[in-house]
Amino acid sequence: MSITPSHYNTIKENSVYGRYVVNEQILDFLSRNEDRHQVKTIGSSVQGRPIKSLQMGAGPIKVLMWSQMHGNESTTTKAVLDLVNFLNEGTSVAESILKHCTLLIIPMLNPDGASVYTRVNANQVDLNRDAQERTQPESVVLRGVFDAFQPDYCLNLHDQRTIFNVGLTDKPATVSFLAPAHDPERSISKTRGVSMQLVVAMNQLLQKMIPGQVGRYDDAFNANCIGDSFQMLNVPTILFESGHYPGDYDRERTREYIFYALLKVLEVISENNIDAYPQQAYFDIPENGKLFYDILIKNAQVLGEKWGDGEAIGILYVETLKGNTLEFVPSLAKSGKLDGYFGHKTYDCLNEAEREELRQQSFYQLIKA
């Protein structure tokens, strides 16, 4: 790896932290980079917020990346800012990337959704289902940039929910990747194969840091999804999904791993070293499962007559914006025989100490209600 965790801490953009990331923070960051890089207003959102891009590097290989297409998916946005800081440092790795590549970065495509912490834009449209008709101004902006820039590679940057695990294991899918399909048969074209090789490169790195915590996202084909759409246009495209790291609901640890993945993929591209990574190893990455609850309570019958013998309770947090603060509000998701499911926090009511700890939690009344 070309950067150590201690080095990462020196380039981490500390002005942006947590899950609630809004356009004003991005505009401030970009303004501090205007003297060094090309910063442009590339369009406006439904509500008139500016959508900006940053271009850096002068190489022949063109890489387009965009984040916060879904307004409540901010982890990759933070990692992109860290990446810019690293590339500004002038290390040999940074100079090599900027010599061989031209990067065009859209840190926040959906500023209206970000402001109210929703997936959709101000017209309640999921921009990642608008790739073909392009009914929304944000969709038009992204496609316009794609057509004008004519990228050689695309990085589509997202977050995923805490429900995802890796395969059938009790490991959270802290990072997931996808080489999107380009047809309903999910065949492997030359460009999709390149996407797979780049995913293999990133997975090999991350397995040394978070072994067993990298998953492969569902590759069902949907031409209305932007990644599938760009793959259909024969541009190798990779979907990044930032997930849960134990105890890290602010996704600051995940942010760091996304940064490492971004740096790795740019290193491999800039060094023209893609063929060092076997395409077939892509399929060795387990597919994501959906076996996690934020809180799993086992043997709930001990709590009272409401719960049957051996019954479990699964609780998921609802990410709720209150003012400018994001709160994680517990919600009862499922009860019953939840064998095979896992909890990011687990209580077993047969254990007296854990039962007493559970009774002290703020969500205990939700269970008793």
UniProtKB/TrEMBL annotation:
Cofactor(s) listed: Zn(2+)
Pfam family, one: Peptidase_M14
Enzyme Commission number: 3.4.-.-
Alphabetic keyword roster: Hydrolase, Metalloprotease, Protease, Zinc
Limits of the Peptidase M14 domain: 7-269
Any one Gene Ontology BP term: proteolysis
Enzymatic class: hydrolase
PROSITE patterns in the record: PEPTIDASE_M14
Active site annotation, chain numbering: 241
GO cellular component: extracellular space
GO MF entry, a single one: zinc ion binding
Family per record: Belongs to the peptidase M14 family.
Entry-linked PANTHER family: PROTEASE FAMILY M14 CARBOXYPEPTIDASE A,B (PTHR11705), SLL0236 PROTEIN (PTHR11705:SF143)
Protein name: Metallopeptidase, family M14
